[in-house]
Amino acid sequence: MFSVGLTGTKLGCAEGGCGACTVMLSRFQTHTQQLLHYAVNACLAPLCSLHLVAVTTVEGIGSVARKLHPVQERIAKAHGSQCGFCTPGIVMSMYALLRNNPTPKMADMEEAFQGNLCRCTGYRPILEGYKTFTVVRQIYKHTVKTHSCQNTHSHCIFFFLQDGGYFAPFDPTQEVIFPPELMSLSKGQRSRSLCFRGDRATWLQPDTLEEILRLKWKHPDARVVVGNTEVGIEVKFKNMVYPVILAPSFIPELNSVTHTEDGVVFGAACTLSHMGAVLRQAVETLPPHQTEVFLAVLEQLRWFAGQQIRNVAVSPSPISDLNPVFMAAGCKLTLMDKDGSRVVQMDDSFFTGYRRTVLRPQEILVSIEIPYSQKVETFVSAFKQSPRREDDISIVTAAMSVTFTPGSNVVEDLRLSYGGMAATTVLAKRTANRLRGRCWGEELLQEACSTLAEEMTLDPSVPGGMVTYRRTLTLSLFYKFYLTVLQKLRQQMFLIKPKGSYSVISPFLLQAVPKGRSQDDVLGRPMMHLSAMKQATGEAVYCDDVPLYENELYLSLITSSKAHARIISVDTSAAERLPGVVCDSVSFRLMTCPSSLQVTCVGHIIGAVVADTQLHAQRAAKAVKIQYEELQPVVTIQEAIAAQSFYQPIRTIQKGDPEAGFKQADHVLEGEMHIGGQEHFYLETNATLAVPRGEDGEMELFVSTQSASKTQSLVAKALGVPANRVVVRVKRMGGGFGGKESRTTVLSTVVAVAANKYRPVRCMLDRDEDMLITGGRHPFYGKYKVGFLNSGKVMALDVSYYSNAGNSMDLSLSVSIFTTETHTTWRTFVAKPISVSIFLQVRRLNLYMEGDSTPYNQILDQFTLDRCWDECLSRSEYQQRRAAIDLYNRQNRWTKRGLAIVPTKFGISFTAAGALVHIYTDGSVLLTHGGTEMGQGLHTKMVQIASRVLGIPYSKIHISETSTNTVPNTSPTAASASSDLNGAAVQNACEILMKRLEPYKNKNPKGSWEDWVSISLSANGFYKTPDLGYDFDSNSGRVFNYFSYGVACSEVEIDCLTGAHKNLSTTIVMDVGHSLNPAIDIGQVEGAFMQGLGLFTLEELHYSPRGVLLTRGPGSYKIPAFGDIPTTLTVSLLRDAPNDKAIFASKAVGEPPLFLASSVFFAIKDAISAARAESGIKGPFRLDSPASAERIRNACTDRFTKLCPPAEPGSFTPWSVQV
């Protein structure tokens, strides 16, 4: 696809976990004589498997030049594309859904997006745009409605999206047809046997059962592949090599579905999507007592991976989440080899070890029979608990089946099956045996829990960790099953409240545009992101989309596998012998490795390999053998404190006399808290293309970076040339979030050195490489002591913050007080305050006021936090919610709700920016500025500003890219200040040009813009933030230019038995001054909130005690998904709050709203407090961030947790440590 210029399909993870590479496959099924359309992850789909298959990519359904498909248009116009890297995949997921169902329900759409991730938008605008395709579209209309807001004489604007008039109509009859040639071939081909031979593997695709049995007998070690969802991962990330692969997708017997007297028999090649469809149909048509097992399977399928995986994956897998259901139901499996067949039952003897079963090497699985539940007295349930509800690997999964003696509550048979409690799926046979013949009641429950606690044990060092939580889950899930069955026995329908639709109505309140303003003046209007259409069609160009240069080479990094060690030797001989490798490219050392050859983190760059292709370079890099002398690493903050491993300076801010304040206080509270780090998880990983220009040491680089000038400077230094020989170009980034502010230079300098030595060189890191090398956001450990009066007024606060800065300072000094030096990867910018949850009135009592002074002695002026607070209280109906939650908590024992309202104050402080504006004689304007576009809409806002100052339609203005040869010495695009800085520079340049044009306008006042600009017009603009400077020693100066303020109120519901939580409602009021673009600013608020939601409730970076990062991709590291957004999300921009310190009275937005997601964290803590009170536990308790399901469950102390005490610290080596 790349070679023909079709680069719309993006690679975000290479493991089927992000959905960026989603495409639609279409296949004619000869056995049904029907077309099948389905979405798949292109990164896992082998090319060999696409014989007779039509592949539709995002380019195939529409383009900007030709015509956009309604799916592309609606996500763009709904402001659902920011950085755009995930957009093609989301577009194709929706397109595949519409090809199968032109009028889907909301539930269908939600299911279709389970395999897609977005880091920028917060998901809400994507869903709002695509709701217009569903059968529920009553709320949409793209009209501007003036709405009188509560308690104010001001006005706000409601924007709603609708298909009426604003969007192009959707006509499902006009879709691209299945290629007639493929149809003819599919119908006419007698044999589908195929053989593809590669340099390391042979792909055999038999088309009869006899043929595959013969091949398996001949190649007993061959892997059987249908969806490639396991083998693809093993080959890519575990360096596995399978010389022979058997693909049975076209064998009729393995794709058949047969209904028998005992159940439904599925061929082993039936996909999970097909299985789900068949079982749903059976549930609708069969008597309820026969479908208990089917419902349990469907419950697991509901949360099994994403739609793209379910469309190709099959059920037989040694590590499948379905195995507990199959085991509890006693499913029968038919195995066969060339000599015959046998039937085995899936029981505790079926699995012989991790990923091993009773199948003999020459056997294949032919089918699996899922039985009917035969008796009215049989009840079956399935459970799955994972860090994230959607598309996640389970922590513990369980299935339970009980049959009672007819007419009684006496247990006749009981099967309890668990996954995640051993190397294989296990049956709790000892517990089941004890409970048979017992009455289903409280005594049985107590016996079950005590026996399960004894039977379901785990080694404290077990892979995956969370030992106490996993053991507790075995009891909690049984208790859920117990309650379910108990209610059914009482002939009461047991209903779980349905999962709320994603943001069914999510109003967002914008600011009014002054009356009389020209329609050409787009400033302050919700203008669409300038690149949204191109991003939705796949035509937007990212760094790795730049066409290949002739004889271009690819670079792959060689990194350390040890956290702290000396390099003894490096053997490159095996790598140099591999095909495609440039022989002398393996041996050079990089500036990041000290002369002593000591590595200081896992992922420390040691060297690089250059080869003709990415695959060859990566294979060669893995072939380099390095011997180490290991040294003792410092991994955690506590280890760094103990070793006194601190970066200097250690900074202290003191204001007033804290000791006197503590003496005046009525109460003193002391405690500790830890906030985990966070991976930025931009969808586009770090990428660089370096092109030597052949004379005077010139080098041109295409880089995905927030800091073009810093990249230019460091590359020039590495090459030993002046900066004027190096040009860095940035078209756009697929996300940045601060993660590409400085660390991109580690890759770009390496690639530049290689290109200088050879010829054009390219490198785009794989997701696991990127996470390993680049670190992330800082973990923080805080110790606090607070003194307060009976009224709640804080009199004194003593806080010590320790941040884990990793093995290099990087940007850590800008965000930390104590910066600990550890042997983990360095970290970059983010603001993550530590807060203490206190009651509403106490928060209000201690809130800043106009004229107050901060701890760093900056006076607060133009203060709006009190207004945000009061408006948020009103909009969220806080008092009514509080009363309703208290009532709910009194009425429910095992689910609790919590509520919290949290303010934020974020300082804006960055230095300078430049701009260059050309006006051409045809009236068109070329605008360049020092900021980079990473999805935040910076280019769009700059065009709006230029349009306002020049007084021309925005369509006449174009931004091509950011480059160091147009605007030099720029600040990084960071700290949320880029609109302020670059906007002022653009304004300056445009005002210079307008002043030059004044004589021509005066001479021809009735002339047009084109008449006035018939001369050469070009101007540089510059802006520097005035009067900034701060001295830590004297605690004086002006740290920030101004502050952004906001308040959020969130309501959650927790499951006290599993630790899962639902985000029910969030109301945000944000002060962005006079918004330059309300739609973009709303998107920034929502995106930052959702990223904060991940930081405070979901995302965890797990490190081994030896400093190895264990979470290196979306399979193990979970960012929020579509299903994590609050059921009701309301965002409003504060009105009538001009800011005279920034461009056109606006304020920065981006990072400031991130901390508002802590309202969810503290709402969870509020709910936990209610659960603890129910168990008779009162008083303060520690809850570290993120508030994961594990931490929530362990904090909800009850009789089940007491049966599973944790192992004594120091008595074992944990799987992971808190860094």
What does this structure look like?
The chain has 1219 residues and is an alpha+beta fold. Helix content is 28%, strand content 22%. The protein has 5 domains: 2-178, DNA polymerase, domain 1, CATH 1.10.150; 251-437, Uridine Diphospho-n-acetylenolpyruvylglucosamine Reductase, domain 3 (2-Layer Sandwich); 553-635 and 681-774, 2-Layer Sandwich (Aldehyde Oxidoreductase, domain 4), CATH 3.30.365.10; 833-908 and 1038-1187, Aldehyde Oxidoreductase, domain 4, CATH 3.30.365.10; 910-1024, Aldehyde oxidase/xanthine dehydrogenase, molybdopterin binding domain (Aldehyde Oxidoreductase, domain 4). The protein has a 7-stranded mixed beta sheet with strand order 4-5-21-48-47-46-38, sandwiched between helices. It has a 7-stranded mixed beta sheet with strand order 25-22-32-29-30-31-42, with helices on both faces. Helix 13 (429-435) runs antiparallel to helix 14 and helix 14 runs antiparallel to helix 15. The two termini are 42 Å apart. It is found in: Peroxisome. This is Xanthine dehydrogenase/oxidase. [2Fe-2S] cluster 1 binds at residues 13, 18, 21, 43. Mo-molybdopterin binds at residues 706, 737, 827, 975.
The proportion of residues forming helix, as a percent range, comes to 25-40%
| CATH homologous superfamily title of the largest domain | Aldehyde oxidase/xanthine dehydrogenase, molybdopterin binding domain
> Which residues form runs of ≥5 with pLDDT under 50?
138-164, 492-506, 587-595, 827-838
Rg over CA atoms, rounded to whole Å, is: 31 Å
What is the architecture of the largest domain at the second tier of CATH?
2-Layer Sandwich
Structural class: alpha+beta
Range of strand content: 15-25%
Task: Give average pLDDT, whole number.
Answer: 90
What does the main sheet amount to? 7 strands, mixed
* Number of helices, counting only DSSP H or I runs of 4 residues or more: 33
CATH topology (fold) name of the largest domain: Aldehyde Oxidoreductase, domain 4
Biggest sheet, strands in spatial order?
4-5-21-48-47-46-38
What best-fitting shape do the alpha-carbon axes yield?
globular
Number of strands: 48
Number of domains: 5
**What is the C-level CATH assignment of the largest domain?**
Alpha Beta
First and last CA, distance: 42 Å
Please identify the oligomeric state: single chain
Binding site for [2Fe-2S] cluster 2: 83, 86, 118, 120
Main location: other
Enzyme class: oxidoreductase
GO cellular component, one term: peroxisome
